[in-house]
Amino acid sequence: MLRPILRRLSHDHLEHWPSLIFKFMKKLLLLLPLAFAFFCGALPAHAGSNSRVPGQAVSNGISNGASKTAVGQNAASYTPLAGQSYKGTILGYKVTVRPRNRRSETAWDIGAALAKPVAEGSAVLPIGSIYLWRHPDDFRLFRARLTVFDNNLFLSRSPAAIRPLEWVATFENYTVPFPQAQLVDGTALKSQELLWGYAMAGFGIGYRRQVYPGKQDNMLALDLTAEPGYLFFGRGSRTAQDFVAPGDTFEVRGHLQFRLDELVRNILELPHRGIAAGADIIYGHRLKWSGWGINGYETGGRDYYLFTGYLVAAGGVPGLHSGRHRLIGALHGGSGIGLDRFSVQRIGGGLNPMGEEYGSTWRPVLPGAVLQEFFPKRYIIATGEYRWEPVFFMYLGLNASAAWLDRLRMEDGWPVDKDGFFSSLGARLTTGFLLHTRLQLAYNYNFSVIRKGRYGGGEIVVSVAGSIR
Length: 469
What we know:
Blueprint: H1 2-42, E1 67-69, E2 85-90, E3 93-97, E4 104-116, E5 124-137, E6 140-146, E7 150-157, E8 165-174, E9 183-184, E10 187-188, E11 194-210, E12 219-235, E13 243-244, E14 249-261, E15 264-265, E16 271-286, E17 293-294, E18 303-316, E19 325-337, E20 379-391, E21 394-411, E22 414-433, E23 437-451, E24 454-467
Parallel strand pairs: 1-2
Antiparallel strand pairs: 2-3, 4-5, 4-24, 5-6, 6-7, 7-8, 8-11, 9-10, 11-12, 12-14, 13-17, 14-16, 15-16, 16-18, 18-19, 19-20, 20-21, 21-22, 22-23, 23-24
């Protein structure tokens, strides 16, 4: 008798969760002033605690030892920068932020991405990670973003014998332990779901040097690595009988990577001014590869090329001589030859880093989509944001995006690859929060995604992050 009641309650909860989430967020916003007051009062104990966006990481650097004081300055226009000390009076509270060593960071984040209307299988997606950054001097660097199933590590060393060159080692894996189905018009293509993943190491040589404005995360780097790895595949419980799963195989990649970061970041690690740019050229070869898909129809992908690049810029608003008003723009693009579902750049929603951290700025985000919703063979995404700092440690942003990419569309019961234009509008709040954490709330509505047979869908992302001292 109890089981039908529980089943009904569970069904009602899933059916009405978006409304419940919106109500919860409204109440949470009402608590922000109280949280802000608490946070300002707690700053002297843990000055400048740092956190990062979900799935990405906190930007890092080292304090230059400079001390900024709001008294005697135009406090209404000054924005504290990452790593600097700061003294002032905000809303009647005395605030002291101590200088912070940004060369060594350990951070965590946890949150969720919520789709409304719901994309099948993607109503609520948890997100979270551990982030490590160790850059004790200009000759050693270690960066890691660790989640349960998706990890990325980078290590470089520059012994005196080979300077200005450096040895480079990398590792990445994507090992989700359950079958995954691509979304077509917002509906999971269950007949082609697969259990798949990979693990890949990299070894090579690179060049790295510090660039303007001279913070420790302002670098120019060029790396060339050989990346041997292993791809594995398996059928899901709903996979169609005539769908042929790829066979497990070894893969070898050659990877040329360029990075330039000249961004200055504020006390919450948001980009304040400067530029960042990068590009990746990847050639991959699979040792064993044969036809896969419906009746083995898919035959490409054994050899492939992938080209991606990005540009991010941040600066002031023309006519407003204030550090509290910022404009940020990001452009990401990619294409390739011989790409398939397992070699393309996966693109979806989530919080958009837009220059928040040296190692995550490359990641393209399509605002309003669900995480990893699209697997395009070619794409270009442009995003612009206006950000305002109404009070110390609180930033409000309004953003818009335009994108062009290919996606799967259902025609006559068959998924077909078609180019499409996407546009979105959104807003986000980034603020210091309780217990020395950073809270980020974002909402984006994309006019071009398809949900329940109609164009248009939104995504809410909630993230809380903090540092581990």
